[in-house]
Amino acid sequence: MSLIVKQEGVYQAAFRLLQQRTAGNNAAWFARLRESAMDRFEQLGFPSIKEEEWKYTNVAPISKVNFEPVVGSDKSEATLTADEVTRLGYVEAQASQLVFRNGVLHSDLGSLTGLPTGVVAIDLAKAIADEKYGELIREHLARSADYNANAFTALNTALSSSGAFVLIPKGISLESPLHFHFISDPVEPSAAAFPRVLIIGEENSRATIIESHASISEATYFTNAVVEIVLKDGARLEHYKIQRESADAFHIATTSADLGSNSRYNATTINFGAQLSRHDIAVKMANEGAECWVDGLYVVGGAQHTDTHSVIDHQQPHCTSHQLYKGILDGKSRAVFNGKIFVRHGAQKTDAMQTNKNLLLSNEARVDTKPQLEILADDVKCAHGAAVGQIGEDELFYLETRGIHHNLAKNLLTYGFAEEVIAKIKVDSIKAQLDEAVLNRINARLEA
Amino acid sequence: MSTAENLVSQEYKYGFVTDIESDTIPRGLSEETVRLISEKKNEPEWMLGFRLKAFRHWLTMTEPKHWPNLTYPEINYQDMIYYSAPKQKALKANLDEVDPELLKTFEKLGIPLQEQKQLAGVAVDAVFDSVSVATTYKEKLKKHGVIFCSFSEAIREYPDLVRKYLGTVVPTNDNFFAALNSAVFSDGSFCFIPKGVRCPMELSTYFRINNSESGQFERTLIVAEEGSYVSYLEGCTAPKFDKNQLHAAVVELVALDDAQIKYSTVQNWYAGDEEGRGGIYNFVTKRGKCAGHNSKISWTQVETGSAITWKYPSCILLGDNSIGEFYSVALTNHAQQADTGTKMIHLGKNTRSTIISKGIAAGKSNNSYRGLVKVMPKAENSRNYTQCDSMLIGSNSGANTFPYIEVMNNSSAVEHEASTSKISEEQLFYLQQRGISQEDAVSLIINGFCKDVFLQLPMEFAVEAQRLLGMKLEGSVG
What we know:
The complex is a heterodimer of chains A (448) and B (478). Chain A has 448 residues and is an alpha/beta fold. Chain A contains ten helices and 21 strands. In chain A, helix 2 runs antiparallel to helix 7 (151-159), helix 8 crosses helix 9 and helix 9 runs antiparallel to helix 10. Chain B has eleven helices and 23 strands. Chain B is an alpha/beta fold and 478 residues long. At the A-B interface, strand 20 and strand 21 of A face strand 22 and strand 23 of B.
């Protein structure tokens, strides 16, 4: 108990420091928003496994570590070099990347020369202070990512001091993907980062974004990220979230998207890293004709724990959602998948499809999956499926009769299992990176 | 108009009240009530101990209100009668001594208790309010060594057997409603199939609530010894009252090595009127334990009645190679709410389970499937297949699916599929242009939708279930 009190003290201290430091430079509404988010966090506390939403994921390890919240400016000696940024980056986005070090935007490390004119990609705190964007941000920030229900979203909202605001104006198409490049460089042990991103895609705009989380050290650190996306009518957004945190890291992320009429949001979430990761993704189909694809792949081993909670909320008629989540588990790892599809009253002609498939490579791995449907309209097409299994004996046998070694055959089948998600990715360097990562993991297993 | 949802539903035809003098205890629940019930039934000390233990535990528990997808007003447990028995001669050696009024009631329900009039091959235990009034074919069953009697009789006649198995599958502290039942249960059925015996006829219990103020708390215990087989049927009805009545039953099944138990239910408690006034609150705990190797427990249920259904017939697959099955049709109409499903707990090696659930929601009802498939680390090579389909009729109904899947080894395979659909205009049109009336077409489609489940029912029940479904839905589609 004392640990938790101490822990909350850390975040409260950081919060007070932040409020003092930013007093005057930020809009009053933002200070109030943070204040009420902090209040909410104090009320909620860290979730316990007694709560249905956290039944299978114990976040006690996070509440027990004395993290050092990085708020405002990241004052520690920057060891992050341009080479490392490039090494962890994607070639397609060399000229369109925002680089964050411990959650704080470092514009000197990134480049935005590849963006068309009119596209705004600046620090969130600066944007709030800018009268051009202040009102727009006020209208959308913390609207779709509700901090009342989720303690981690509340904590991020309370401590969000840096991050990014991106505005893609009407009709503009981004040629190259915009990369949100989050790099942990915990000089201080146990840094906690709270990056916040707000993306607004105006009418008929098009963009691809990459959100990557990586680290240049093997330290224990904590990332608590919130990305909010607002798509106006006819806008399109491809969103790749690549989580490759260090093996000891904690990664908690919230993605929430509000879709306008006939807009389209495609999200692909890849989870490789972190000892404990949790991703809450919520897509609100609040206007007719919206469409989304929410895919994901988690590949975990050792004692890793990964948890995905998704909510696809069909509020209006004629919306389509597709979901494909696949998982490969090895060692003593655990994976949790909880997918909710809501079809609200009156959301007729909804077409919702959800699939979660898990491949258990080890006898000690564990999967808890819960695909959920709540349907209040009758003229809809909804289906979900979940499967937990292992590599099929028949398939293995088939390959072996073709002279392929047992282990290699196993690898081929595992790779093929992951490929269903990877093959859909449209950014070549991500695809290449994932192919390599999946194969490396499998090969490492083969050698072991 | 292609989809009208306004034809009139057929009246609940079992809604009459039997005018019979009852022996009723005052309303309210306390340790005194528990003692009084035990005393009325002349129970031995150990049974009272069992009840009191359950009651004391119940006092520490809270009603599970937050997790089920159900809404209902607070239940006042003090404003209820926990024991009500039709007054009649002390013991009935044969049916001639059973109150003719009671016999008439069951006859009216289509359950003749006179053996000669019976459907051949079905033995019936009839439970009226709190007590069992008659059990048929007892003698014939006895010849085969099969014990089939009321629970009270079992406690008197076969205390060792009851003591050995009672509470071993559903412990007294299992959940709020099971604890309540363990404290105040009044009667029910007991059945015991000895080693190697294939029960020569279907066994069945028919439950009838008559008293408007009373709750019904019955308990069923079925034990199938090594290599035995039994098929058991359960039916229930209640009169129409404006008040809600509580039904909290517990069913325990134990299957030893190579034994098979097939348990079928057609639940047709009074469901309340169109506005949701009245109806039975059906909070039932049903669980089977496949304790032995190669044992099999199969649950089949057709849930059409009750204002609220809260029921999860489950299987604990303890013995290696044991099999659990759950086939369910849940139909809700008007303001009914159902939160039902199953739990399959795989503990033994090579255990297999199948779940087929069909939910139909019409009117402004709400129908939820809630299920758990848990494969423990030692349950190697286990398999589960789950399919839950929902059909929505009318735009004011709701269908939900809450499956929990937990897998803890890598030699097992679990599959879950769910879909939601409606009766398509094309299907209806196709049947109608073949000269089939709209009502019949709907009934055909629904029966086709439920076929996988109906196939599992014993013949008479399957016919009954199809008819019931057609009747219940009459007027909700058009």
